[in-house]
Structures are given as structure tokens and as C-alpha cells.
Specification:
alpha/beta, 10 strands, 27% strand, four-stranded antiparallel β-sheet, 7 helices, six-stranded mixed β-sheet, Rossmann fold, 230 residues
Length: 230
């Protein structure tokens, strides 16, 4: 599903900064993986590279059979649109749009009809427990509800891969547990490959595998024998 071969990332400026040293990594289809490490360890850089939001300095990245470095800009956009859902810490919802309209945005980009788009948005909002909030604006929702909308939007085309960067980091502990439980439930039901960048070890131990990064290097790669139930 996801294969990285000798992938590195160096940022040039007044001085070069190596965010990731050359690494090899394989993530099979349907696995739920936590990426942990201190700030500056390379976690978000790794996630952005896998998501095609950034380009590696060296190495190759293959996502669901597509080698990202060989794709045109239009082809890479289609891979991100069709194969990868993104969830971020700060929701990134458009404040002037309702829940339905926020979830519908990726579908409009695919050229779906208005009715088909509305039907899918309603289906997804029901799936994440917001069936009664379809017409609400983001400011009318709690933080946890806004993150649920963001997850519904990320899943709008049922992508095979979900990338989440600190999805519970901006939430209180109770709401964070609810969002983690939702992600795990969707992972089980949809068979989605899930990668979660997190500082929260409760989140990490709810996954099936933990990658620990330090100073741009994979320090440890271990399986979780019994992922914590949520």
C-alpha cells in the first residue's frame, strides 16, 4: 500500500536542515500506524511526503501502486484527491459553509452532481454521528464536532488511506478519546489504512504499530500486541 525507499528530506536555506535521513518503510494495506517523536523529529515531514504535499530530496515513494515522483502535477492532484484523506489538528473547515457544504467540497471537485454530493455528505455526517448537524456552521459546533466534520470530509470519496496529523491535539481528553474511537471504528468498518502523527501515547497504543522518530531517523518500529480498545 505505502512503500518508501531511501527517502530523505533536506530543507535548504541559510543553512541546510535535514528533517529526514534516508529511510525505508513499508505499510501494508489496512494497517493502523502511529508516528511518534518529539517536536522536530520529522513526524509531520514524513506524513506530508507520504501524502504528496511535499517532495523528497532523495528516494522514491509509492502509494497504492502510484510512484509519486513520476507523476505530473495533475496526476499527483488526482492521487491526493482519490486515494488520500487528510485530517489536521485545527480542522481547516470553511467558516461560511455548513457541515454539508464543507464535506461536499472534495466531491464538487470530482464533478459530482448536486444531488449525489448532498446524499454522500449526509451519509458521511450520519456515519460520524452528526446526522442532526448537517446545516450547522462550524462556529455552531463544539471542537469535537468540528473534527468529526473534518473526518467526514476526509472520507468523502472513501479513500484507501487516511493521514491524520495530531487529530486529537486540539481537543480535551474526553473529546479526544471520542475522536480516536471514531477513527478506529471507521478503520475497522472501511478497511482504511490509517497513519496518525501524535504526541499522545494513549492514541499511539490504540494503533496496531508504532513508528518512533528521533532527529529524522526511525528509532523504533514495533507492533502493539493488543491495541487499546476505545
Amino acid at each position: 500500500m505505502i512503500d518508501l525507499t531511501q527517502v530523505s528530506r533536506v530543507f535548504a536555506g541559510k543553512r541546510e536542515v535535514t528533517a529526514l535521513y534516508p529511510l525505508d518503510l513499508t505499510i501494508p494495506k489496512g494497517e493502523m500506524v502511529a508516528i511518534i517523536g518529539a517536536s522536530g523529529s520529522g513526524k509531520s515531514t514524513l506524513l506530508n511526503l507520504i501524502g504528496g504535499l511535499d517532495h523528497p530530496t532523495t528516494g522514491t515513494i509509492s502509494v497504492d501502486g502510484a510512484t509519486l515522483g513520476t507523476l505530473s502535477d495533475d496526476e499527483l492532484t488526482r492521487v491526493r484527491r482519490d486515494k488520500i484523506g487528510f485530517v489536521f489538528q485545527f480542522f481547516n473547515l470553511l467558516p461560511s459553509l455548513s457541515c454539508t457544504e464543507n464535506v461536499s467540497l472534495p466531491l464538487h471537485l470530482r464533478g459530482w452532481s448536486k444531488q449525489k454530493t448532498q446524499d454522500r455528505a449526509a451519509e458521511l455526517l450520519h456515519l460520524v454521528g452528526l446526522g442532526k448537524r448537517v446545516d450547522h456552521l462550524p462556529d455552531e459546533l463544539s471542537g469535537g464536532e468540528r473534527q468529526r466534520v473534518a473526518i467526514a470530509r476526509a472520507l468523502s470519496v472513501y479513500p484507501p488511506i487516511l493521514l491524520a496529523d495530531e487529530p486529537t491535539g486540539n481537543l480535551d481528553s474526553t473529546t479526544g478519546e471520542e475522536i480516536l474511537g471514531l477513527i478506529k471504528d471507521l478503520h475497522r468498518r472501511l478497511g482504511t489504512t490509517v497513519l496518525i502523527v501524535t504526541h499522545d501515547m494513549t492514541v499511539a497504543h490504540a494503533c496496531e504499530r508504532i513508528l518512533q522518530l528521533k532527529d529524522g531517523v526511525i528509532l523504533a518500529d514495533r507492533r502493539v500486541e493488543s491495541p487499546a480498545a476505545q
